[in-house]
Design a protein that fits this description.
alpha+beta, DNA-binding, 9 helices, Beta-Lactamase, Arc Repressor Mutant, subunit A, six-stranded antiparallel sheet, homodimer
Chain lengths: 257, 257
DNA sequence: TATAAGTTATCGTATTACGATAATGTTGTG
DNA sequence: CACAACATTATCGTAATACGATAACTTATA
């Protein structure tokens, strides 16, 4: 009984941890590699992989390396399909995209990051490796800062305690002071901007929306290349962004989730 | 020890089954609903949901209904990120999209269906609810028929035994005979077409690719609205499609997975 | 071919997940 | 408002199962 609640279903937790061990750098792993990476006994990994393979969540190649199976994608797809907010907002997002002709994102707060739940991407030379499911830090994204700016000070302070600032670019805010100041401005303005804080060349404007208890739980953002980004543009995007975020808040307020 | 292999990690299997219980029609479920739907004892469901909530795979709203959590999306995202073939093909697919200016799809065979692994969608009036992770039948998709057409006859016969034909449109092939004939033509041509067999107004051309053992394991397809679709178009798309599918086959041949 | 490393199979034991039941909380109805 | 019906949470003894050590076997490496 190590951590957390009273019910602990170990093998379920371990099985999911095993799936989470895979990533861009670890596409294929052998039994022992998995055992080492997860810190599980090799017998345990053997049982886990056997079960997961049988269910289609893992595949094994002829070199006895394990890969994630397609069942995992299908599972991920289930979420977007079974998310009322996303379904509701989809037409609004399409309208927003048509109106501003820039990449638009729907983010939801998940722990200490924002996760892309829907993204309509403008095709251009510079393509980002962002998709539904991508998790991004709060402190260097327009969506994240928009959410933070509406959080209670207590919450923000606790967040600042545990966050590990990383300078993705020279423009990334990496001190609690700098971030707090930026959040104050954002709060007053009702929107947040990200000017090349996460990636050079990438800018965005984000507006938060709120659940029925008034807590910011997500944001809509519009992204644009740095060379086209300016205050005039922000002003132009602001009204449609606020309209879309407002629709989200309203939906969450009426549909008691 | 009901079915399958010797190792059976029940709670892992049940936990994943629980997640799979969610879908467009079942976005939010209570404990007892989940218990009924999955056929698990309520105590079991209680343990499963507690564990999954703690791990972020489920969320519970104030009405005590469970929803899929964002962790599931993130997990799904892991697959596409950790799939060598997809990473390799992405630029080819972008080129293909530019060249033909139609929606292109990368499908992989998974059981008796094809799953979209990557999709570059042309924006147009008619938008389909298809995304990465969508699973589609083999017998009424260009990709599926392209794969089937290169399968050994034995395999196809076994498939025809177990498949449950459903007429999505009046054009859907719903008999083994009709399908077999179509597959014969496809095999000779080296590509398969889907003319409004899955959805009215939707057509596609698909070309299969092969793993290193020569078994067809996926397909590239190009989709177009029915009003624009004709033989001349197929001819125009064929060469770039074959080129892309060829790249996939070559990749799978060299990278021993 | 010899040696090491990795994978699969076996098995007794301690742990854990199971499901019945009871207690508590919630919702709907007269 | 009180009662009933239902749903959720907590408790607990037992049976089952997941655990991990070990051995047998297979595959890579020098």
């Amino acid at each position: 009984m190590s951590s957390g609640g009273i019910h602990h279903l170990k093998s379920l937790e371990k099985g999911l941890a095993l799936l989470e061990a895979f990533g861009p750098e670890t596409q294929a792993m052998t039994l022992t590699e998995l055992s080492q990476r997860c810190g599980f006994h090799i017998s345990t990994v053997q049982r886990l992989t056997a079960t997961l393979c049988r269910l289609g969540y893992l595949k094994r190649d002829h070199a006895k390396r394990y890969h994630l199976g397609l069942k995992v994608i299908k599972l991920g797809y289930r979420v977007t399909q079974s998310m009322a907010l996303r379904t509701f907002l989809l037409p609004y997002l399409r309208d927003l995209f048509e109106e501003i002709d820039q990449t638009v994102n729907l983010f939801l707060l998940e722990g200490d990051e924002v996760v892309i739940v829907e993204r309509i991407e403008k095709r251009q030379i510079l393509q980002y490796n962002l998709h539904t499911g991508s998790g991004l830090p709060l402190y260097c994204t327009a969506a994240g800062k928009a959410i933070l700016s509406h959080m209670e000070e207590e919450w923000v302070n606790a967040f600042l305690e545990r966050v590990n600032f990383k300078a993705f670019t020279p423009h990334t805010l990496t001190t609690p002071q700098a971030l707090k100041e930026a959040l104050k401005v954002s709060r007053e303005q009702g929107y947040a901007v990200n000017i090349q804080e996460l990636a050079l060349g990438a800018c965005a404007v984000g507006v938060a929306f709120f659940d029925k208890t008034g807590i910011p739980c997500g944001a809509i953002s519009a992204a644009a290349p740095a060379q086209f980004f300016n205050m005039e543009m922000v002003k132009r995007y602001l009204e449609p962004l606020k309209r879309t975020a407002g629709a989200a808040s309203q939906f969450l307020g009426n549909h008691k989730d």
